[in-house]
Structures are given as structure tokens and as C-alpha cells.
Amino acid sequence: MRKITNKGFTLIELVIIMVILGVLAAVAVPRLGNTIDSSEVSAEEAVIGNLRSAVEVYAMDQVVANSVKSYPLNPFDALDTKSKNDLLYSKGWWFSGGNVRHTRNDGSEITWGYNAATGEIN
Q: Is the pLDDT of residue 18 over 80?
């Protein structure tokens, strides 16, 4: 007579594995959230840096064309058409009331002031 052996995991073994996976997930999820927040801040800093550069290039073009350094009233006007359209229509950026604004993925709004007389974005 042959002995019948069941192969597989017991219910207790499966529960222990689920508890271990739950603890690992509880540790990993907050770290992932912090990483997403910091990457969004870095992306905003990159966009603002590019916007500052574009405003300065615009001002230098005005010097060459008119012999007078002037800045655009809307800093997004200094960008090329594709970059401007990408930011304004799909990435949550806009300009109003002398401020450059960005809506983050969590719904919060970040604002930088823009001075059209000096070209400063802060």
C-alpha cells in the first residue's frame, strides 16, 4: 500500500507569507511617496531654470533687434511653440497675475513671482 502525501502549503504558512508581504509593503509605500514628491520638486526646478534661461535669451534677442533689453510680459512667450504648448496644455503650468503657477499631482499649487521689468522669476 502506498502512502498518500499531500504537497503544498498549509494555511498557516500562507498567512505568515501574507503578513511578511504586508510588513514589506508598509515600509516601502511611504518611501515611494517621498521619492515621487522629491522628483516632482526636481522637475519643477528644471522647468523654472529653463524658463529663466528662455527669458534671458528673449531679452538678448531684443537687444540685437531693438538695441533695448526687454523681457516678455508672459514668460512662457519666451519658449518655443512646442515647449510652451507642452507645459501649458498638458503639464499643469500657467501664468496669471504676474505669477508662474504649477498644479502638482496631489492638487496643491506652487507659485513663483515673475517681474517683467527685470525678467526675474523667484
A: yes
The answer to whether the predicted template modeling score (pTM) of the entire model surpasses 0.85 is no
42 vs 36: CA distance, rounded Å: 10
> Cα–Cα distance between 29 and 9 in angstroms, integer?
28
Give the pairing type, strands 99-103 and 120-121.
Answer: unpaired
User: Residue 44: which of 117, 105, 114, 119 has the closest Cα?
Assistant: 105
Q: Report d(CA 72, CA 41) in Å as an integer.
A: 25
Extract the runs of DSSP E, i.e. beta strands, from 1-122.
93-96, 99-103, 109-115, 120-121
Phi, psi of 99 (to 5 degrees): -125, 140
Distance from C-alpha of 31 to C-alpha of 28, rounded to nearest angstrom = 5
- Which helix H or strand E contains 71, and what residues bound it? none
**CA distance readout (Å), 69 to 75, 78, 99:** 15, 14, 21
Average pLDDT, the chain: 91
